Amino acid sequence: MRTTLLLDIAADAAGDRIAVDTPGGGLTFEALQRRAQAAGRWLADTGAAHVLFIGLNGPILPVLFFASGYAGLPFVPLNYRLPDTDLRRLIERTAPAAVVIDDDMAARIAGMDGVTIVRAGEFSARFLEGPPASAAAPDNPENESDIAVLLFTSGTTGEPKAAVLRHGNLTSYVMSTVEFLGCDEGEAALVSVPPYHIAGISAILTSVYGGRRIVYLPAFTAEAWVETCAAANVTHAMVVPTMLDRILDVMARSGESLPSLRALSYGGGRMPQSVITRALEMLPKVDFVNAYGLTETSSTVALLGAEDHRAALASADPLVRRRLGSVGRPLPTLELEIRDDEGRVCSAGERGEIFVRGDQVSGEYLHRKAIADDGWFATNDAGWLDTDGYLFVEGRLDDVIVRGGENISPGEIEEALRACDGVADVAVLGLPDEVWGEKVAAVLVCYGPPVDCEALAAHVRKTLRSARTPESWHFRDSLPYNETGKLLRRVLKAELAGLSATP
Amino acid sequence: MDIKPGSRWKSTVCTAEVVVVRPPKPAGVLQCGGAPVHALGTESQASGEVHPDHSGGVLVGKRYTDIESGIEVLGAKAGKGSLAFDGRPLTLKEAKPLPASD
């Protein structure tokens, strides 16, 4: 099935509903469909092989995304924060390309061969404003194995990889997780993740299929998020962990209680227990959902629902309570396994690599399939399942510290340290060691003066085991994160690898 | 009747429309309100009445299946007629909706 079909049936069944807020009062589902079809005709005539978007969030996105689908071309949102040379190299890889770019960024990609540039202002004037063109849809292609979206992943070394999502992957994900027009008419989703993030793509599709109005935040700041949430009567939103912490700070300062907000989902990184506990206390009426997913799986593969959150928070049983730190259970429409180094399926409580299989799993990069012949995809994430099937994700396998043959996950040590007084933020990583191969290092950001490392070490030793106690301690004013809240452990590691540590 | 995934069909005796989610394994005839459905977009006037034996209705957003053939369809527009495949009534597929996560 193709992604455009989801818009077609929503436009036919609920054409008058508002699909996306615009400065002009919003586009209905019918208007979104007609305007995307008109833009699709234009795209088909440009001779482009890819449709690129470079810019901030806004109502252009759903129009351009569906227009690409109607034209039968892959939609490729690029990270506008990339340096010009990297941005231009990615565009070269997708030429001939039609590029819609924010006006103030257009000069960065001027003078490239095989590139049709349209400024966002011009695109809006032509396809979002004024009377809609009465153009018929382009020859609507039917093949669901066509590429719908290419997302360049922020590779750690070498050229970024282009993750491939086909129409069938995305529609399978949306149709198996969302009820068609199942949303109440007043529901609105605030989208603040950047357009080149998988959650930005899936938000377009799940909102359209569910019949939920999209409200865009051009770029995230906690102040703007809280303000927009209140002003636009937002009912649903998705945030990454670093966003939530800052949102709660703003709410605490301003006294804003966000009465319209009903559901808040979070994902894209490890959520500190202290942050989610605070969020549950400050927003008692809001349903919290923790979602785990990857670009290569069309977004969510496991989720911890609102009831799970409340049960965990209220429980005296430590085994139930710790589920607040899990990502819940796998979606019923896919398979998930933990496997050890030899490929054996692990039993409950045993740590290994997370594997998934299902229609929504693309497991594919441009010119390279990363999925096994039997359909299983190795996520490169370490994790384990508890006896009731709750999944605990411990982070990238590459981040696991191997000390004297023992595999140590940074996540649990960070969690233990974060619970200590005076610790504002922390990163744990492995540094080369002559005796053990690797040793555990902790990088701390403190609220006030540097905390006592001995006391922290004693806390970790007591909570975990001695092999997991950091042997070197470092202090920073802040830790490096990328713009979607992922800790850049490799940056810290490179910095520290050459330095001598204290003590 | 070429019932492909993603193909859209409309009732000829009521307002119901459906989208095929899973195709039937053996070929057959999809019916609504007791009459064969038509492909959406083909010129056809509503004709006839909903048969009383096939009047359970189609609801928007619900899934309907026939285990024997494997066909599964999504209600895209509501109508008074109910669905059948080769005369066998399709059954409502119960699904617990998941919370929004994007």
Short description:
The complex is a heterodimer of chains A (503) and B (102). Chain A is an alpha/beta fold and 503 residues long. Chain B is mainly β.
Structural features, described:
The complex is a heterodimer of chains A (about 500) and B (about 100). Chain A is an alpha/beta fold. Among the domains of chain A are: about 5-165, Rossmann fold, CATH 3.40.50; about 335-395, Luciferase, domain 3 (Roll), CATH 2.30.38; about 400-495, ANL, C-terminal domain (GMP Synthetase, Chain A, domain 3, 2-Layer Sandwich). Chain A is built from 15 helices and 26 strands. In chain A, the strands form eight sheets. Chain A has a seven-stranded mixed β-sheet with strand order 10-9-11-12-13-14-15, with helices on both faces. In chain A, strands 4-3-5-6 form a four-stranded parallel β-sheet, with helices on both faces. In chain A, helix 8 (about 220-230) crosses helix 9 (about 240-255) and helix 9 packs across helix 10 (about 275-280). Chain A is globular, with a radius of gyration of 23 Å. Chain A starts with a helix and ends in a 6-residue tail after the last helix. By secondary structure, chain B is mainly beta. Chain B has a six-stranded antiparallel β-sheet with strand order 5-1-2-7-6-10, with no helix packed on it. In chain B, a hairpin with a 6-residue loop joins strand 6 (about 65) and strand 7 (about 70-75). The chains are: A alpha/beta (about 500), B mainly beta (about 100). At the A-B interface, helix 1, helix 7, strand 13 and strand 14 of A face strand 2 and strand 7 of B.
List the helices and strands and how they pair.
The complex is a heterodimer of chains A (503) and B (102).
Chain A: H1 3-13, E1 18-20, E2 27-28, H2 29-46, E3 50-54, H3 60-71, E4 75-78, H4 84-94, E5 97-101, E6 115-119, H5 120-127, E7 147-152, E8 162-166, H6 167-177, E9 188-191, H7 198-210, E10 213-216, H8 222-231, E11 236-239, H9 241-254, E12 263-266, H10 273-282, E13 287-294, E14 299-304, H11 306-314, H12 318-321, E15 329-330, E16 335-339, E17 352-357, E18 364-365, E19 368-369, E20 377-385, E21 391-396, E22 401-403, E23 406-408, H13 410-418, E24 423-433, E25 437-446, H14 453-463, E26 472-475, H15 489-497
Parallel strand pairs in A: 3-4, 3-5, 5-6, 9-10, 9-11, 11-12, 12-13, 25-26
Antiparallel strand pairs in A: 1-2, 7-8, 13-14, 14-15, 16-17, 17-20, 18-19, 20-21, 22-23, 24-25
Helix pairs in contact in A: 1-2, 1-7, 2-3, 6-7, 8-9, 9-10
Chain B: E1 8-10, E2 17-22, E3 30-32, E4 35-36, E5 38-39, E6 63-65, E7 72-77, E8 83-85, E9 88-89, E10 91-93
Antiparallel strand pairs in B: 1-2, 1-5, 2-7, 3-4, 3-8, 6-7, 6-10, 8-9
